[in-house]
Amino acid sequence: MNTLSYKTISANSATANKEWVIVDANGEILGRLASKVAKIIRGKYKTNFTPHADCGDNVIVINSEKIRLTGDKWNQREHFSHSGYPGGQKITTPAQMLAKNPALIVESAVRGMLPKNRLGRKIFKNLHVIVGNEHKFEAQKPKEINLNTLK
């Protein structure tokens, strides 16, 4: 038996086949959308997934203002941020974030599901959240995918 033929192939930036995909957030529940988008960005749906490399796809999320939250989470859920100064804690609800910038809700949900290291900060740049239908990425020829077909 030739043991040299059983080498494990690891993907790297040169061998990763990155694609552009569009996800429509119209009527989707925030947490379910964010977990599937995080898996796509990470590359976990690909056969050549490598945990230490950026081998995922670039994702464009459109209609971010039309996401859903179940129950009364629009007013009960709280997002904390701190300026670093004493008394600099800020608390915002998703309803306030939706009024200010709807893309921040999706971005913060996906960011929380990515690794908290250099790789996570790098692959977060592969996410593009757009308010509305129109986006500037037609040149990349993105293909639209349905999140309900993914597990």
List the helices and strands in order: EHEHEEHHHEE
Q: What is the first-to-last residue Cα distance?
A: 37 Å
Question: Could you name the CATH topology of the domain at 18-69 and 103-149?
Answer: Ribosomal Protein L13p, Chain: A
**Biggest sheet overview:** 4 strands, parallel
Mean pLDDT rating: 92
Total strands:
6
Number of helices: 5
Taking pLDDT < 50 over at least 5 consecutive residues as the criterion, the unreliable ranges are none
Can you summarize this structure?
This protein has 151 residues and is of the alpha/beta class. 26% of the residues lie in helices and 15% in strands.
Description:
This protein has 151 residues and is of the alpha/beta class. The protein has a domain at 18-69 and 103-149: Ribosomal Protein L13p, Chain: A. 26% of the residues lie in helices and 15% in strands. It is built from five helices and six strands. It has helices at residues 30-42, 73-76, 94-100, 103-112, 118-123; strands at 20-24, 58-62, 79-82, 89-92, 127-129, 143-144. Helix 1 links the parallel strand 1 (20-24) and strand 2 (58-62). Helix 1 packs across helix 4. The longest helix has 13 residues, at 30-42. The mean pLDDT is 92.
What layout of secondary structure does this protein have?
Layout: E1 20-24, H1 30-42, E2 58-62, H2 73-76, E3 79-82, E4 89-92, H3 94-100, H4 103-112, H5 118-123, E5 127-129, E6 143-144
Parallel strand pairs: 1-2, 1-6, 2-5
Antiparallel strand pairs: 3-4
Features:
single chain; 151 residues; alpha/beta; Ribosomal Protein L13p, Chain: A; four-stranded parallel beta sheet; two-stranded antiparallel ribbon; 5 helices; 6 strands
